[in-house]
Amino acid sequence: MEENCSEVIRKIFHVFHDNNIVIYGTGIAAQKVVAALNDFKIMGILDRSHEEGIFCGHKIISWNDLANIPNGVLIIASAKKNYKEIYLRIRDKCATYGFQVLGAWGEKVAYYPWAQHCDKEAAKYYKKSKEELKKELQQYDAISFDVFDTLIMRRILNPEDIFEMVDARIRIKKIYITDFKKRRMKADKLCQNGTIFDIYDYLQKETLISDKEKNTILQEEIACEKMSLLPRDDMVEIMHCAMKMGKKVNLISDMYLPIEFMKELLDSLGITGYTQLYISCEYKTRKEEHLYEKYLVDNAGLRCLHIGDNYQADVIKPQEYGIDTYEVKSAYAMLKMSNMHGVSGYTDTFNERVLTGLLISELFNSPFALFDSSGIVTIREWKKFGYIFMAPLVIKYIMDLFSYLKIAEKYDGVLFAARDGYVFQQLYKKIRCRKNELPQSYYFLTSRKAAIRASMESEDMFDILKDYLQYNSCEELMEKYMGISESSPVLPGETPDEFLERNKDLLFKKAARLKKNYEVYLKNQGIQQSGKYLFCEIYSKGTTQYALNHLFDEPLDGFYLMKYSFEKDYGIPIASVYNIGDLERERCMLVLHETLIELFLTSEMPALQEIGEDGEPIYESEQRESKELAALKDVWRGIEECFDSFMNLYIEGTEIRKEFLENVFMYLDSVEYESQCEEIRHMRFFDNLRESWSDADAFIK
C-alpha cells in the first residue's frame, strides 16, 4: 500500500460507509484497512488462525456471527497474490450469509477468472485420471508420496476437528481444560517439527495437568486419529503399482506422530512395502524447509517424482530440488471444485463438519472422481446414493429423537411405525446397545388403512372416514379402504353420509374384530396397552397415530420428521423436526422429495392391510419389482455405513441444523445419475390407501 493509503482506501470504500463491514485478516494490510475505515461500521475481524480476541480494537468473530449481520460486506485485507486462496476457501460461507466480497483495493473478487466455478485450473484437473498417473510413473526411478490427504485421509472436514473430539471424550473422563482445542493448536505451532510427546509436554506446562491426565489425553488423541482415518484406495493402488514396476517408493510427511506409530498406522490401512518413511518430527525439519534434502541424500542420481496434494509443500518446493511433481487434490479441494461446493457453506457445527467430512470421503476418496466430469458429481451405485442423500436425513432425525427423549417424560417404549420406520428402528437398536438409558424400541406394524379399520367402532373415526370420500366412491371406500365387500349398493338419491350411516353396523362389527386382533398382536410383541409409548413416523398429519390411540389406555405421543399442519387438527401431542405449513410445502426440499424419501426408507415388506386373528400381519400385494427391492437394500447399506462412521465420531449434544440437511438435499437434482442409479428416473411409489402411484423422480432431472 502506498504512502497516503488511508485516503485511497476511504475513497475506494466510501460507498459502503453505511454497510456492515467485516475485515478478513490480521496482518499488516488488515491493520491499514481497519485504521483507514475507523469511522465505518466494522462489525468484527475474521481470521483463519484466530477464533477469538481483539485486533486493532475490534472483536475477532466466528463465521456463525455472520448470520446476525445484515447488509454485509467482507473485505479480504491481504496482498492480492493471496486473494485466490482465501476467496476459494471462504466464498461458500460468504454466499450462505449474503456477504459481498471485496479485495483490499475494492476489487470485486467474485469476478476474477479464477473465482468462477470452472476455471482453467479446475478444467485441467478434470482431465487427470488414474491411468494417466500410472503411465507417468514409468519415466522415473524413485516415486515419493505425501501421506495425509494423498495416500490416506480423515473422515472429518478439518484436521483440527480431532481436537474437539478429544475434548469431548476427556470431559467424559472428568478432565476439563478450558479452550482445549485452541491450546492444542497453539502447542502444535510452538512445537513445530516436534513429536506429539513434545507437544503434550508443552501443553502440560501450560495447563498444569498431571502426568496421568497428560497420558490419558494423548492416548485419546491417538485413538481419535486412528478412528478418523481411511485409505484413499486409488492412490494406494497407484503406490503398489509403482512397486510392481520396480520403482523405489518412499513416503514423505509433515507429521508429529512418531515413525513407529506411523508405520503401524499405515500398515493397518494397507500401506506397506515402501522403502522409507520421512517424517518431519523425526528429521526435525518440514517439507517446506529441508526435508527434501534429507530425501535426496538417499536417492541421489535417481529420476524422482513426488506426488502430493499441497501446492506449496508437494509441488513448488520439491521442484526447487529438481524433483518432478504430480498434484492430486484432497477430498475437500475436490468438493470446492465440484458442483456440490455449496455444501461447505452451510457447515457450521462440529457434527455438521463430521457429516460433511463423511460425505466428501465417500464422494472424493479418489482424487480422480471428477475425471471427465466438468465438475459434475456422478452417483452410480445405490449404496453411494444412500450414503450421500439418505443417511444425513436419518442421522438428523435420530439425533433429534435422542435429544427429545432426554427431556421428555419416560416412555415404556418407542414405536417405529411400519413401513418407513424400519431403517430408523434398526439403527436405534444399535445405539441403544451403547445407551442403556434409552427406552426399548419396536418395529410396529401398522398403516393408515390398518389403523383406521381397527378403530372404526369409534364415532370420531367414523367422521374421519367420511373425509376419504373425496378420493373414491362409496362402494370403493367400503371395499378398498375398509375391506368390506358385503355392503349393499348406494340407493337412488342416497347421499354418501346416508350410505355410511346405513352401513355403520358393518363397519363397527369388523372394527371390533380387528381391534381384538390388534390386541393379540400387541401382546405378542410385548407392548402393553396400559403403557406410555412414543410413536415415530417420517411424515404424517397424525391420522394413524390418532386411530391407534383407540388401542391404548394412554394416548400415544408422536415424534415425526415432518408433521403436516392442517385445519382439522386432531389435537394430539406431536413433536417434529419440521412442522410443515403452507409456506414449507412450497420451499422445503424434504417436502419436494417426500415420495423419493418414502420410496427408499420403506421396508422390503408390502404395506399392512390389517392384523389377522392370531396377531399375524396380512399384507397388501407387492407392487414393487425385484430390482427395486434390491436397490432398497443397497441404499440401506449406504445409510448404515455412514451412520456407523458418524456415531464413532460425533459429539453428543452438538446440533445438526435443518438448514444443513436441506442444503444437502438441494443437490439431489444437480448430480448425474448413471449405471444402477439411472433407474431413479423411472421409479414410482404406490400409496396403498388411495391405491395410486406417485413418481419418485418429480424433481430429478
What descriptive keywords fit this protein?
single chain; five-stranded parallel beta sheet; alpha/beta; elongated; 701 residues; 29 helices
Description:
The structure is a single chain. The chain has about 700 residues and is an alpha/beta fold. It is built from 29 helices and 24 strands. It has a five-stranded parallel beta sheet with strand order 11-10-7-12-13. Strands 16-15-17-18-19 form a five-stranded parallel beta sheet. Strand 12 (about 305-310), helix 14 (about 310-320) and strand 13 (about 325) form a beta-alpha-beta unit. Helix 5 (about 130-135) packs parallel to helix 10 (about 235-245) and helix 16 (about 350-365) runs antiparallel to helix 17 (about 380-405). The longest helix has 26 residues, at about 380-405. The chain is elongated and about 100 Å long. The two termini are about 50 Å apart.
